Amino acid sequence: MRALIVEDEFLSRKVLRSFLMTLFDVDIVVNGREAVEAFKLAHVEKNPYELILMDIMMPEVDGIEALNRIRTMEEKEHLTPKAKVIMTTALDDPQTVIRTFYDGEASAYIVKPVAKEKLYRELEKLGLLNK
């Protein structure tokens, strides 16, 4: 399986990669614009991402906008199954949660710092973690 980490903070990228590297082939990008490009390329190569871990607050294109662009591509190009997207953020803001779940169709939401156990629980709920 393949995962994409979308995170502008170096330490967060490193930690998330260490959590996922035994479960997924992991790619890393640093902003939402690169995430959308990586998502497109993965489909062109016929090797899509099953999981995307995306920070909300990033330069250039934020995580919410990138998620909206990804979901629009999935819809227009009939890409199935849809990628499971876990949004990550340092903000514990209920309005942001509502926007990412209902407007952006996020699969899950984790407040930073991301703990391995919490991430693995979410992966299990999403059917991405073998028991």
Automatic annotation (TrEMBL):
Keywords of the record, alphabetical order, are:
Phosphoprotein
Q: Which residues carry this modification: 4-aspartylphosphate?
A: D55
GO BP annotations, alphabetical order: phosphorelay signal transduction system
Extract the Pfam families matched here: Response_reg
Instruction: Give the source's domain of life in one word.
Output: Bacteria
> Which CDD domains is this protein grouped with?
REC_hyHK_CKI1_RcsC-like
The record's annotation in PROSITE patterns points to: RESPONSE_REGULATORY (PS50110)
Every copy of the Response regulatory domain together lies at 2-127
Q: Which PANTHER family match?
A: TWO-COMPONENT RESPONSE REGULATOR, TWO-COMPONENT RESPONSE REGULATOR ARR22
Name under which the protein is recorded: Response regulator receiver protein
Organism in which the protein naturally occurs: Pseudodesulfovibrio piezophilus (strain DSM 21447 / JCM 15486 / C1TLV30) (Desulfovibrio piezophilus)
